Amino acid sequence: MPSVLITGAGSGIGLATAKLLDAQGWRVFAGILPDEDVQLLLASAREIKPIPLDITDAQLVNRAAEFIAEETADDGLNALINNAGIVTVGALETVDLQIFHQQFEVNVFGHLQVTQAMLPLIRQSSNGRIINMISLMGRVGLPLLGAYCMTKHSLEAFTDVLRLELASQGIQVIAIEPGAIRTQMAGAMAQKMEDAGEKLPVSLAAIYDKLYHAMTDVLHKQTSSGLDPEIVAQTIHTALTTSKPKPRYVVGADARGLLMMRKFAPDEIADFILSRALKLPRK
């Protein structure tokens, strides 16, 4: 029975993936925050094992590694899905640096910490795989989401380097890049954007107000029209089970379209197209 650790498995893409892999016969180690509700995760579950896991907490990460090592002593851990994440909103001029540091602690350094702890277990398995959940925003920056975009861009580099470093060991490293997905996190992002716009200091409100309103509308629309997380889960399943996985999977027509635009259009034209598509204010 193949085994997998999924971080951030309590909701959204992580939850959908845990459910799907469990139904497909995987032994799923579901990393969730220590105080997170497990009812949705365990409903109709077959072989899901919840693990208290804050990926920024070295002690919890090491405990998780020890537990999984005992549970998979015979054949090691087959796969790791680095999925946990948080989102910070706000113009780069206004984002508090402590919040910025926290964004990187979770979205970048936490994934590195988990990967370092799990690699010895993955190395014990045959054809081990690491999947990093990135985002369209890892390669297409969006205004007022700069902190989040920067962490996802860092994960792109992390994935590319790790893929090369582990290639000779038979461990495959794969990036999953979804566009707009209907998840709790996506809805929270829209609400955070709206709240942040309302809390702008008077000195900056006149400068950024229209941009905040535009991005709030964009995020609300994406939340209602985005893909179901189960579609991303299906892509993850494919990446885990196909004999020759792609280095990168882009999920969603919006993601494919914007990435093609950024790849082939000059930056000035791409900026103009993106601004028009999102109805962003321009001078």
Numbering strands along the chain, what is their spatial order in the largest sheet? 3-2-1-4-5-6-7
Reported CATH architecture:
3-Layer(aba) Sandwich
> CATH topology, what is it called?
Rossmann fold
Instruction: Please tally the β strands and state the result.
Output: 7
Q: What is the terminal separation in angstroms?
A: 58 Å
Mean pLDDT: 94
CATH class: Alpha Beta
Poorly predicted sequence stretches spanning 5 or more consecutive residues: none
Number of helices: 10
Strand content: 5-15%
Q: Structural class per helix/strand content?
A: alpha/beta
Give the topology string: H per helix, E per strand: EHEHEHEHEHEHHHEHH
What is the total domain count?
Answer: 1
The helix content is 40-55%
Task: Let me know the CATH homologous superfamily.
Answer: NAD(P)-binding Rossmann-like Domain
Overall geometry comes to globular
The largest β sheet comes out as: 7 strands, parallel
Q: Radius of gyration over alpha carbons?
A: 19 Å
